[in-house]
Amino acid sequence: MSAATTSAVTISTPGYRVLSQADIIAEIERLPDVAAILGGTASDWRIRDVADGYMNAVFIVEGPDGGVCAKQSLPWVRYHGESWPLSENRASFEASYMKRLGGVVGELAPKLYHFDPSLQFIVMQQLTPHIILRGGLIEGRRFPKVAGDVGRYVATAAFHTSDLGVPFETKFEDVSLFARNHAVLRISVDLIFIDPYVEVWRNRFIPEIGAWARAFREDVALKTAVARHRNAFLSNRQALLHGDLHSGSVMVTEDETRVIDGEFSTFGPIGFDLGAFVANLVIAWYAQGGYDRDPAERDAFRAFILDQIATLWTTFRREFLALWEANPAAGDGYPATHFADAAGAARLSTIRSDFVDAIFRDLVAFAAIKMIRRVISYAQVADFMVIEDTVRRAEAQAGTLALARSLLKHPERYPDLGALLDAIPRFERAGLDPDAPSAR
Amino acid sequence: MSAATTSAVTISTPGYRVLSQADIIAEIERLPDVAAILGGTASDWRIRDVADGYMNAVFIVEGPDGGVCAKQSLPWVRYHGESWPLSENRASFEASYMKRLGGVVGELAPKLYHFDPSLQFIVMQQLTPHIILRGGLIEGRRFPKVAGDVGRYVATAAFHTSDLGVPFETKFEDVSLFARNHAVLRISVDLIFIDPYVEVWRNRFIPEIGAWARAFREDVALKTAVARHRNAFLSNRQALLHGDLHSGSVMVTEDETRVIDGEFSTFGPIGFDLGAFVANLVIAWYAQGGYDRDPAERDAFRAFILDQIATLWTTFRREFLALWEANPAAGDGYPATHFADAAGAARLSTIRSDFVDAIFRDLVAFAAIKMIRRVISYAQVADFMVIEDTVRRAEAQAGTLALARSLLKHPERYPDLGALLDAIPRFERAGLDPDAPSAR
Which domain of life is it from (chains A, B) (predicted)? Predict the structure, then answer.
């Protein structure tokens, strides 16, 4: 990515133009199936801007009978503006991701109604009364089904796009398609894997966390661990990932969970998606320490968060293994004919268990890397930003960074879920000095 | 791949037809640059069929001034016939491979003169007086530069298509292109990684080696090791591979080496290409035991083969590390900014050394897997086939299989080149009983 000052917006999609609200109404008017969802005629429809993420224009359009969500990729990063150009082709990949997984994840994702490649314009199911999970976590609201649902979502999406779930020809066609989604992947690579460990104009962090940022820039062992996982992220095409599965990409009610925003979709290690979600739950846990809230209530909510991390992993593990056992001949990874007799069946059981153990190790490392990027890189999170007292904010962030450093530098201490859960409270008092005993 | 009896030839390339020799002359007549290489006019040109591999139609066309090699993909496996259909699109990938590496490997590959996508027809530099390396090895001829040249070829091709040598955007565009080359990859997956461990119509081996084949089908630990590497082959997009780098894909003179036949090109682990070449040198070593040749001469030639294996690895290692050191900021794998100070530089040196050590471990495993497929799967090799006495042939093959089994099941015994070279003679007397002490 070039420095902002030297970049220029260019558009490579023929026919592309940025749609106004009136344009969006006009586009929808031409889609009878979508218009039927809204009911009435265009003059009855209301449109409002609901853009919340960093990247795209997003609107809700509502009519007498119902509503839809309309989304357009812009040729720049919406949050930053035109001085950060970005290929507008990314809605293509979000639509491809929704199409590829539509038959697999069922009601865990919104329905895709329409995709226009020349406008990079998507119309999908409106989610109402769902809210963004991140906001719910900040408010201390409990959504008891979300972690299990996300675990099931990742298990299903990953299995059915991996060498366990499909012949490799299917996987390679998918790989071919999603490998072209590299304009946004440059953002992932830079913001997640490179920027936090160097001084760069995009990094944003409060001065109080500066000693930690400096310590990370100088920590060769930490950067080595990050390098190992950056290379795995770039080289391991294990399954189709969501690629940005944080708590802002999940919409919830008490009963329902919907995963949205697949524009970062890419093939990579399954632990990357799981780690992203865990990182954001961990961030929610630490951020609670900076909120003015009744201590007993806070402790109970934190216990709920830890419980959700446990549920995410145990659900993923159970569902993924169940899919594999139910579909022993679906892919080329472990052909049923090679493990047909009793000895083979016993070995396959061990292989499966080793396979998910390796995913857990990846989860731990990618979770740590994701925690770090949310503190000392460009894309900050509301969990911390709502803490106005910057010392309290930095203290909450420091715990997150201390945990992340330990996860990356001492993976042998975190062989299983219990070890990970135990570690989270242990780093709460890490403090602003990265060399203090409490930070180790 | 379906069983032969249920398959039917289909053609998906518009305009495709199988070219006769007269058609090829007519095609070349329309290419002024190629016609100029031949000299004279079409009536002066001679064409002859030189197809040697399993897959394609290959001709040499010669005129008064020079010659070219013309190659067309057929919609079936040439060696097997129309009862084994295969997508004819594979010349596209061979041409793409030649184009992608043309500026990188220089004179180590023939020049591409012309590619016609609708005919899946390639015209390239004629290699003369080069011979196929496999034939030279069978005759006991020494080509002193080949192993070093192949080591340099793999180092260069791998580095410049990996996350060390190019930004990941470049790599992902390449990944996207070559991931579509899966029709031939099905052949690799089946014949190399699946067939040798099951009973299937395509397997061809002499009855004398039947006890070994059965032992391999029943060896759960062996199949587990193969599974691990099959999954790495399918999931690790480390670099662009040749994909079929055996001694039939290398043409030589005493002074020159040319790598040909890139139609199996795919992204995968670098050790796969190195392992393929090592496997075929190892096969040549064992096969020598079945040839009637003066013992002293045989021992000397075998020493030469071991020396070539050593040269391949040491050259690859030296050249690959030199490229990495000379291009520290070329890719996203290990950003120079993360390892800029003295501690970082020291660590990067360790990282590089670990990186090539991991490639060596892959080399050992993939070499073993490639040895096995050349004995108990479809595509047999001339090195063994020229041994008419099937007991002697099986004895040579048994040594190869015994070594391969040990390499796969006991990788800890083969941490370095010396251990690998020492092991080759040790299994020469393995014998036809896979359970005999000599076979362990």
Answer: Bacteria
Smallest Cβ distance to A234: which of B168, B231, B235? B168
Q: How far is A384 from chain B (nearest CA, A)?
A: 27
Residue A102 lies in a domain: no
Burial level of B405, CB count in 10 A (0-12/13-18/19+)? Answer: buried
C-alpha B266/C-alpha B260 separation (Å) is 15
CATH number of the domain residue B27 falls in: 3.30.200.20
The whole model's pTM is what? 0.96
Tokens of B347: 């660590």
Shared domain for A184 and A142, answered yes or no, is yes
Which chain B residue is nearest to residue A266, measuring alpha carbons? B172
From the candidates A195, A332, A348, which should be mutated to test the interface with B, based on the most B CB atoms within 10 A? Answer: A332
CATH of the domain at B322: 3.90.1200.10
Measured CA distances, B385 to B135, B261, B375 (Å): 12, 22, 10
**Cα→Cα distances A29→A37, B59, B174, Å:** 11, 60, 40
A202 in reach of chain B (CB within 8 A): no
Shared domain for A83 and A148, answered yes or no, is no
Domain finish residue from B57, B90, B125: B125
Same domain, A114 and A169: no
Torsion (CA) A11, A17, A21, A26 in degrees, nearest 10: -150
Set of chain A residues whose Cβ sits within 8 Å of the Cβ of B168: 182, 185-186, 189, 234
Tell me: do A176 and A298 sit in the same domain: yes
A231 touches chain B (CB under 8 A): yes
Inter-chain CB proximity A236 and B235 less than 8 Å: yes
Examine the domain organization and report whether B183 and B331 are in the same domain.
yes
In a domain, A261, yes or no: yes
Size of interface A-B (CB pairs under 8 A): 131
CATH number, domain with residue A116? 3.30.200
Domain extent, residue B404, equals: 131-439
Query: Do A273 and A332 have their domain in common?
Result: yes
For every one of its 440 residues, what pLDDT tens digit does chain A have, with 9 covering 90 and above? 334 444 578 888 999 999 999 999 999 999 999 999 999 999 999 999 998 777 899 999 999 999 999 999 999 888 888 888 899 999 999 999 999 999 999 999 999 999 999 999 999 999 999 999 999 999 999 999 999 999 999 999 999 999 999 999 999 999 999 999 999 999 999 999 999 999 999 999 999 999 999 999 999 999 999 999 999 999 999 999 999 999 999 999 999 999 999 999 999 999 999 999 999 999 999 999 999 999 999 999 999 999 999 999 999 999 999 999 999 999 999 999 999 999 999 999 999 999 999 999 999 999 999 999 999 999 999 999 999 999 999 999 999 999 999 999 999 999 999 999 999 999 999 999 999 999 99
Q: How far is B136 from chain A (nearest CA, A)?
A: 36
CA distances from A102 to A112, A114, A369, B113 (A): 8, 13, 29, 45
DSSP 8-state assignment for residue B300:
H
Q: Are residues B157 and B113 in the same domain?
A: no
Q: Which of residues 86-125 of A touch B (CB under 8 A)?
A: none
How many domains does the structure of chain B reveal?
2
Asked whether residue A105 is assigned to any structural domain, the reply reads no
Do B236 and B354 lie in one domain? The reply is: yes
**Among A75, A100, A125, which residue terminates a domain?**
A125
Which run of H or E residues covers position B165?
A: none
Contact A236 B231 (CB under 8 A): no
Q: Is there a contact between B361 and B271 (Cβ–Cβ < 8 Å)?
A: yes
Judging contacts by C-beta atoms under 8 Å, the chain A residues touching residue B234 are: 163, 168, 171, 332-333
B231–A338 C-beta distance less than 8 A: no
CB-CB under 8 Å, A171 with B185? no
What span, in angstroms and rounded, lies between the C-alpha atoms of B374 and A410?
A: 43
> B203 in contact with A at a CB cutoff of 8 Å?
no
Cβ neighbours of residue A335 under 8 Å, at least 6 residues apart? Answer: A329, B194, B198
